[in-house]
Amino acid sequence: MTMRDTDRALVQAASAVAKLRCRSAAHTLASAARTADGRVISAVNVVHATGGACPETVALGTAATQGVGELETIVTVGDRGRAIVTPCDPCRQLLAEHFPSLRLIVGPVDNPQVTTIV
Ligand SMILES: [Zn+2]
To answer: Which InterPro entries is this protein grouped with (predicted)?
Structure first.
């Protein structure tokens, strides 16, 4: 799938959230998701001794809270300039169940790729 300008903007949005909000051991990853109508939802993970919640899960909950019907594209980045992070298997399954046509941005920051969630 082709990287669009809006995909590059989504990577930048996730990176900005990671830089701004991931400043402790409690929050180490940030996701940004674009909705079908062009809004951007961002979220950070929550680390806990039992494992916590991944940013993709938090983004999904945030989308539901804001009444978003469809997520179109999602990307997750690490804190402190770490690269784009591929969602863990449980999150991929969760996202695929809720948004089977979701586009996923993966790969190195300097050459990201778009793939499908399933
Ligand atoms: Zn996960």
So the answer is: CMP_dCMP_dom, Cytidine_deaminase-like
